[in-house]
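Replying to the earlier thread about multi-chain prediction with a worked example.

Input:
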Amino acid sequence: MSSAKLDLHQSYFQLFDMPQTFALDGTALEQRYRALQMTVHPDKSAHLPNAEQRVAMQQATFVNEGYQTLRSTLRRARYILRLNDVDTQEETNTAMPMDFLVEQMEWREAVVEAQQSRDVDALTELETRMHAETAALEAQLADKIDTEKNYVGAALMVRKLRFMEKLAEEIHAAYDAIDY
Amino acid sequence: MALLQISEPGMSTAPHQHRLAVGIDLGTTNSLVATVRNGISTVLNDEQGRSMLPSVVRYVDEQNILVGEAAQRTQSEDPINTISSVKRFMGRGLADIGDTSRFPYRFLDQAGQVQLRTVAGTKSPVEVSAEILKVLRARAEASLGGELVGAVITVPAYFDDAQRQATKDAARLAGLNVLRLLNEPTAAAIAYGLDNASEGVYAVYDLGGGTFDISILRLSRGVFEVLATNGDSALGGDDFDQRIFCWLLEQNELSALPASDIRLLLTHARTAKEQLTEHSEARITAMLSTGEVIDNVLSQTAFHEMSNNLVQRTIQPLRRALRDAGLKVTDVNGVVMVGGATRMPQVQRAVGEFFGQTPLTNLDPDKVVALGAAIQANLLAGNRGEDDWLLLDVIPLSLGLETMGGLAEKLIPRNSTIPTARAQEFTTYKDGQTAMSIHVVQGERELVADCRSLAKFELRGIPAMVAGAARIRVTFQVDADGLLSVAAREMGSGVEANIEVKPSYGLNDAEITRMLQESGQYAKEDMQARALREQQTEAQQLVEAVHNALAADGELLSADARTQILKHIEALQLSLTQSDTQVLKRAITALNDATVRFAQARMDKSVAHALSGKNISDLEVK
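Result:
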C-alpha cells in the first residue's frame, strides 16, 4: 500500500475525526484507530522502498501516540488543556488541598498495610474504592472541561488524577509483591 | 550477497506474480522454515522428509561445517566444536552467560558479544546462527525453486534490543532479506487465529527449549492486538532435562563428569522426559566413559515432583501479563500452547487449572510459530490474499535513560504498541557544561544499576550556558521490529547526535528474569534506594552550588557568616558518607537555611545565579 498522506501536525482529535471534548466515544476511537493502522502500519509497506517504509513508521507512530493519548482519560485531559494553552503544572504546582493530601496518605498507608499482611481481599477492596474515586474525579473533570470550559479548574483535577494514577501503580506493585 | 540481486521489492514484479517469502523459527533446540503455498501455510521438509532442523552446528575443520542432525549425532564426540543452543548466547557478553563451566566450549570475551573458539577459528553466536539460517534458506530455495524475496524471523517476545539486533544480523549474514522480526507467541496466534477464525482474547503460552513467553492478544475482525507480554527468558524445556540429569547424578553418586558424559546423560535425560509424556515410567541406561553402567527407572510422579517448581515459575508471569492487560482470568476466551515443552502433561494441567479451561493443542506446538511467521512473510512480501489483517505488537521491557544519581527515567513503558516514539527534554546541571552523556537502559527497576545497559553515547558541542539553560531533547524511536534508535538534540544550537542502538551486549536471560521478578518484589526497597539517591544528588548539587556562589560573591558575606556556611557544608559532606535519608535531609535543610541570607544578598545584587541547588540541577521533566 503506498503511504497515504497523513498530516502529522493535525491534532489527535482531527486525526481520528472526533470532537475535541473530554467525553469520548471509545468504540468509535478504537474503530478509527484500527482503520488508520490498516493503511499506515509498516507491515503494509514492508515490500516498498525504504523511504516509504520510513514514512510508514512515522505515520504509524503518530497514530499509536494519538490513540494512546486519547484512550487514557488522564492523557486526554492533559492534551485538551495543552491545546488550550493551559499548563497542568504537575511537576511545579504541589499546592494540593489539605484534605485531599490527607486522604492520599491514608490510601497509601492502607496499601502498604495490605501488602505487608499479604491481604489480597483488602487490596481488591482498595482497588474498587480507588476506581470509584477515580471515576468521580473524572466526572468532575468532564464537567470542568466540556461544560464549564474552566481549564484552570480542570488542571487541578488533572493533578488530583495524577495522584490517583500513582496510587493505582502502587496497588499494582503491591499485588506483584504479594504474588511472590 | 545474494539479496542484492533481488529486484527492488515493490518495483518490478508483475502484479500477480507470487513472491517467494518464508517464515523461520530460529529455535534454541530446533529450527524450522515454512511458506504459504496456494494460500496454505506449510512447513518445508528436507530431502529426508524431516521438518525440524536441530539447532546444532559442528565445525569439523576449516572448510567443513555440519548443521542439524549430523552435528547433533556426533555431539558427544566433539563437544568443543559442536555448538548447540547458541540462541542463549545471541547478543550476550561473557559476563552474561555466567558459569561457563556448564558448557564444553572455549569462550572468548570480546566487546559486543561473546565469541567461541573452534577448530575453524573464532566464531560469534551470530555466525553460528547464520549457518543454521543458511541451511534453512537453501532448503526453502530448493523446495520453492527460486530466490527468496525475504524472510520473517521469529524471536522470543522477551528478547531485548541486543538479542533482536543479533538475530537480524545473523539473517543478513545468511543472505536473507529480513522482512520483519516477529515475536514467537504472536506468530503462533496468527497461525491459530487465521486458522480458526477466532475472535476474543487469547493467551499464548510458549514454553520453548530455553525461553518462556506469555502473550495476551485480542483478536477482532482481522486485527491481532497484543495487549501485554511477559515471560521468563531463562526457563525452558532444557531446565526439565537438567532436573532429570541432576537426579541421575544423585542416584548414581556421580560428580565431575567429562564433557562427553555430560552430553550423554543430558541426551538420555531428554529422551526420558519425552517418554514420560506418554508413559508412567522411563528407564534410563547408559555407559559412561569410565565403563560404569547406569540403569535407573524414573516414574512420572517423581518427575512431576522434581519439576513442579519449574512449572510454577511460569504461572507468575501469567498473572503479571493479565494485570498489565487489565484483564481477569475469566476474560480469556482461549489458551494456545506453543513449544515442544508444552507437551508435558504437568504443564498442560497447570495451565488448564490457572485459566480454568483446557488449552488448545490442535496445531503442532513445534510448528505453529513457523507457520504463523510464514503467513506474515507472505503478507509482508506483498502477496495479499482476500482477507486483509493487521498485527499490532508491543515492546516487552521499558526503555529509559539514566538521570542524575543513577536513576532510570522510563521513556517508553513496557507493553507500548510499536512502532512508537517518545521525546523528552533534559537539561545541564553544571554551569558551562558542553557535553552530555546519554545512557540508554532497558528494564523495570528504578535504579540504573538494576536495569540492563543498552548503549552509551555523548552529545558534544553544547554551547556553554548556565546550568539548567540548555534544552536537550532526547528522542527514542522503536520500529516495527522492536528495535530502538535514539537521537539527541540541543534545541538552542541544533547540535545533534544520533545512534542506532547497537548495544555492546544485550540483557542476559537470568537478568531479565530477575529484573522482572524483582521489580515487584523490591518495589519498596527501590523506593527507599531511590529516595536516598535523590537526597544524595541534591546534597552534592547544593554543595557545589554554594561553593560556586562563595567563589562568585563571597565578598557579600561577613567572615562569621562565611564560617557558618562552611561548617554546614562540612556537616552535609559528612552525612553524605552515611546511607541515611533522614540525616541527609536534615543536613540539606540546615545548609539551605544557613544560606538564605546569602542568597537574598546575591539576589539583591541581581546576580544571575540562583542559589537553590535544587532548581538548577533538577532534571527538567516536560
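Chain B touches chain A at residues 8-11, 19, 149-150, 179-180, 221, 223, 316, 319-320, 323, 376, 379-382, 388, 390-392, 416-421, 477, 479-480, 517, 519-521, 523-524, 621 (CB under 8 Å).

Feel free to reuse this layout for your own posts.
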